[in-house]
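Before any further analysis, backbone shapes were mapped to integers, which produced the following:

***
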Amino acid sequence: MPSGPDGANGTSRRREVSDLYATVLEVVKHYHGAARITRVSYGAGMPVDRLRNFVERLLALGLLKSEELDGRPAYDITARGQEYLDSYWKLRGYLEGLERGPSDERPSRRR
């Protein structure tokens, strides 16, 4: 998940908004339409009051949808939310490749 160490030197980095959106979407996706706010809070490592703001924003952007389940809201990822995750992980892969730099790549063969 995006909240881990940056990998280069083992230090933690501050999560950007895009990382937090991806984390919330990944946690919601894990519950297959039955993600309640408390479960998402634990999974994303965010307090419920802060998470509510993120969920409202994701709902407004069409990345999440909400349905009543046993009289309480439950969340599910939308197709657009899955597109966001696909793009997010692809971009993260590119950025990690750039951060490694040319010295970390395999040496070229000499002829």
